[in-house]
Amino acid sequence: MNQRERREALIRALLNENPDLRDLRIPGDEAERKTLLRGLMNIRPPMAADPAFLTLQGEYLREESNERGVVRVAELSPVRPGLYLWQGDITRLQCDAIVNAANSGMTGCYVPNHRCIDNAIHTYAGVELRLACEELMRRQGHPEPTGQAKITPAFHLPSKYILHTVGPIVRGKVTEQDKRSLASCYRACLELAAEHGLESVAFCCISTGEFGFPNEPAAEIAVETVGSFLTGNTSIGKVIFNVFKDKDREIYERLLAN
Predict the structure, then answer these.
(1) Are 97 and 239 in contact (CB under 8 A)?
(2) Closest C-alpha among 182, 183, 190, 186 to residue 236
(3) Which end of the chain is less crowded, N or C, counting CB atoms within 10 A of the terminal residue's CB?
């Protein structure tokens, strides 16, 4: 079965799960089919999937990962001892853990094809991730507080684990509590990674997108908090600041050059 056939089979399986969508027309254009498949995965509720579906999804996502290209941390050069800067899609990084900027529900973004990092991570990790997060939240019994962290397997991503953290939402002037909460996100992720003996962690720009934290002060908090943590006795020897926008790359380049 080729990738086109896998894509169509996955689409049909997801449509058949939802009685309201069974009559939806599958487009002939492959780019549209890819968009449809991602959207269907995005809206799928956290629930168990048929083993045959999971096997097929695994084959599909593995081929997608190969096509997009895996970036290995071992191939990157540090800008400071133990600190790295890489611009690109965090779902391509092969390291011990990547950080997901989650919402308090912790089960991902349900907006079809939304451009947030939460959506991308859940898409390329596969439907197993949403169910794993739902089980964590069910045991916890309440929404995830800001500034803490949870760990899950990364499933079909090149990384081994995902560290999920909820950053502060800023609507107006940044408060001291916002700053403390954002720093707590970075510390909580690093502490959890160290508890699991992980050696490499890639951070996205927590809270700077939909959550509205200004990019420059957010980066300052990230660099300061991570740098302070790495001075202690920890298993973590490599931290990657992952940026997507040119603006964030320029900010981190300047901060890390000092």
Answers:
(1) no
(2) 190
(3) C
Question: Which uninterrupted H or E stretch holds 2?
Answer: none
State the Cα–Cα distance between residues 249 and 258, nearest whole angstrom: 15
CA dist 19 and 36 (Å) reads 16
The residues near 16 (Cβ < 8 Å, ≥ 6 apart) are: 22
Give the integer Cα–Cα distance in Å for 122 and 30.
21
Distance CA 61, CA 67 (A): 10
Cα separation, 191 vs 123, whole angstroms: 26
How many Å separate Cα 190 from the centre of its chain?
Answer: 15
Place of tokens 């079809």: 112
Report pLDDT digits (tens) over 51-108: 999 999 999 999 999 999 999 999 999 999 999 999 999 999 999 999 999 999 999 9
What are the structure tokens assigned to 5, written together?
């056939």
